[in-house]
Amino acid sequence: MEGASVADFSWDVRSPLERALAPGAYGVQGDAGVSLTEIRNFDLVQVMARRGKAGDLAEAANARFGVAAPETPKAVGTADATLIWSGPDQFFVLSKGGRTEVLAQTFASSASLSDQSHARVLISVCGPKARAMLAKLSSIDLHPDAFPVGAAAATSMDHTSVTLWRGGDKADGQAVFNLLVFATFAESLWHTMLDSAAEYGVAVEHSEEL
Fold first, then answer.
1. Residue 36 and which of 80, 157, 188, 198 are 20 to 30 A apart at CA?
2. What gap in Å lies between CA 152 and CA 101, rounded to an integer?
3. Pairing of strands 34-39, 202-207
């Protein structure tokens, strides 16, 4: 109608942990045994082979990334991305936000793609007590002999589906575990992880870069 005002809407992308994540110390005082860091600003694309095209997908992935796509539960680092197994004949491509090229052309004839960038939350867990905390929530054996660098699993933590993998160790030798969780369950799992790690002391933060 003439003269009527129209509201201006702005759509700000916010982390599902915006309300729950309070940077700083949590739990017992002293040196933190666990560090919980939410990683923001990343691109995540799920690549799924079309029927009968698994071989073509493997060739396309090798041509694009220079490494074979993971066919078993593991994560493979490349020059500009990490390929994470997510099931038979499928994997995630994780990269820095705004840095991933459009993958549709690469996999046009071999795979279907699903952009999961805003559907998942990425959390990094490290510290001398990281493995002990995760053991409370998952049945996965995280001992280095059973879950070395690059190992991955599609599993559950406190009844919540997650993709879990072990990244490269820190300079001091501490193991780094990464997990992807659906955005709708992220806040609940975050509080559970905080409570599970409280007895060890927790350092909480977020990073805008992968």
1. 80
2. 24
3. parallel
